């Protein structure tokens, strides 16, 4: 998944970014709200936002996102355990609330749960004919046998699976798979989709000519 991490503390931000990347997520880390002003049109799976940033409040920022129609699942992180803060965060439009210091494994589990819920999947196990995806274990099985996927192939597959039945443009797919810190060759997405079809079956991913790709219905 592609995550936006808004955390001003350099040590905590770097630690969370590195941990989430070790979980195979694409993570864009920013330390100020002004840094993400240009990212409003970027596709993200989950936003993780510190309560108080140098140039504004997470509560106000999330509220403005919701008013603009941005419904990306959001976790607000706060160092203070006050019921009034929890109420304010959730009423602002946040989907979850965690205390600092954040337990990294719990954060990872909450991110997975948020994304499943928003995607409409009650279970981390998705079935597409003879193909089964385990979103927690980041594995694809064909007729019960685990397919040998690269990290990048899994990222493409996961991005499409979490949007099953929807068209994902090539540009959005590139952004979800890579974020801002790298380069993809002009035909890299096509290559990854071709390899996924070879390993998992040609019917799994549909090409919508001139637009992008769509996962077959579950």
Task: Give a short summary of the structure.
With 218 residues, the chain is α/β, with parallel strands linked by helices.
Q: How do the strands and helices of this protein lay out in sequence?
A:
Elements: E1 2-6, H1 10-22, E2 26-30, E3 46-50, E4 52-53, E5 56-57, H2 58-67, E6 74-78, H3 83-92, E7 96-99, H4 104-119, E8 125-128, E9 131-134, E10 139-142, E11 145-146, H5 151-161, E12 167-169, H6 170-178, H7 188-200, E13 205-208, E14 212-215
Parallel strand pairs: 1-2, 1-3, 3-6, 6-7
Antiparallel strand pairs: 4-5, 8-9, 9-10, 10-11, 12-14, 13-14
Helix pairs in contact: 5-6, 5-7
Q: What is the CATH level 1 assignment of the largest domain?
A: Alpha Beta
**CATH third-level topology of the largest domain:** Rossmann fold
Q: How are the strands of the biggest sheet laid out side by side? A: 2-1-3-6-7
- CATH 2nd-level architecture of the largest domain: 3-Layer(aba) Sandwich
Key attributes of the depicted protein:
218 residues; alpha/beta; Rossmann fold; Arc Repressor Mutant, subunit A; 5-stranded parallel beta sheet; 4-stranded antiparallel beta sheet; 7 helices; 14 strands
How would you characterize the overall build of this protein?
By secondary structure, the chain is of the alpha/beta class. The chain folds into two domains: 2-119, Rossmann fold, CATH 3.40.50; 125-215, Arc Repressor Mutant, subunit A. It contains seven helices and 14 strands. The protein has helices at 10-22, 58-67, 83-92, 104-119, 151-161, 170-178, 188-200, and strands at residues 2-6, 26-30, 46-50, 52-53, 56-57, 74-78, 96-99, 125-128, 131-134, 139-142, 145-146, 167-169, 205-208, 212-215. The strands form four sheets. Strands 2-1-3-6-7 form a five-stranded parallel beta sheet, sandwiched between helices. A four-stranded antiparallel beta sheet has the order 8-9-10-11, with no helix packed on it. Strands 12-14-13 form a three-stranded antiparallel beta sheet. A hairpin with a 2-residue loop joins strand 4 and strand 5 (56-57). The two termini are 19 Å apart.
